[in-house]
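Quick one:
INPUT:
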């Protein structure tokens, strides 16, 4: 299955990851997410409280939303890190140029 996931497209990978995440909660002995109030599904709106397939789908949609949100935050942090690395490199270049200029000025007879 890992080989299949590695070759699959990104949307399919995210759906499979969400399904695996959902199955983790499904087998915890407390009941399924979205299985209804008092059955381990908890309150979370009228659809989730009612339970059944719609409640499970609502729980899966919620898990998917937070998964996508987390991925977006991670991507934003990675872009910020790359930007900061580029700024650091630029600053090092400016420092080296200033050192060269300083050496030229101080070495004059």
């Amino acid at each position: 299955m890992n080989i299949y996931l590695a070759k699959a497209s990104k949307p399919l990978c995210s759906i499979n990851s969400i399904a695996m995440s959902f199955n983790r909660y499904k087998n915890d002995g407390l009941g399924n997410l979205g299985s209804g109030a008092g059955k381990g599904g908890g309150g979370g709106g009228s659809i989730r409280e009612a339970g059944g397939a719609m409640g499970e789908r609502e729980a899966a949609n919620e898990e998917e939303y937070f998964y996508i949100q987390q991925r977006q935050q991670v991507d934003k942090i990675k872009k910020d890190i790359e930007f900061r690395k580029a700024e650091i490199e630029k600053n090092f270049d400016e420092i080296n140029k200033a050192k060269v200029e300083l050496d030229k000025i101080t070495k004059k007879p």
